[in-house]
Structures are given as structure tokens and as C-alpha cells.
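Researcher: Structure prediction, please.
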Amino acid sequence: MLGGTNNYLFFMSLAGFPVVLFLILILKWATKPGKSLIARRAVQGGEGDYGSLVAVASPSNHIEGEMLRQKLLAVKIRATLTQTNDGPRIFVFPEEESAARAHLKSFS
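Model: Predicted structure follows.
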């Protein structure tokens, strides 16, 4: 007892401060820039904006591109169809580029 009074209410009023401090720390951590758990919106780029992937085909539309991609997948060539600023493109890894071009040329 401080000063001859009951200090229970005094200490109970101070108990909320650590809880609020903990919540502030959690919110600062959760809203830190660059650490978001939500994926960013995909950005469309040019042919050279896709890292080490190499464009091997330029189909006229997405349907034709998906048919060509499925033909590459059937022979175990990993391929992806992407809409670029220049239209749809089929990308493969550099080590599979020559095989993909040869296989696509055989269908043309």
C-alpha cells in the first residue's frame, strides 16, 4: 500500500500499457514496407524483361500460343506462355532453346 490506500486499481490501470505496447510492435512489424505477404500485381514487360528465359516463338494469339506450349510440354521441354508488350511470347530456359526451336520448326 502506497500512502495508506488500496493500490490494486492503480496497478490494474498500468497493466494495459504493456498490452498496448505489444500491439504497437506487432502492427509496426506487420506493416513494414517490403515484407508484405500479399503478392504484387503482375507487370507486363518486353521480351528482355523476363530474366534468363529466352523467347522462342511469337504466336499471333493466346490460343495458338497455348497449343505450341502444349507441344513443347509433350516432349518434356519446360515452356511458359506470357503476354508481353509486343504480344504473346513462348519462353524457355536457355539450355532448352535449340531443342525448342527445332521442335517448333518441325510443326511449321
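Model: The longest strand covers residues 79-84.
Researcher: Thanks, that helps.
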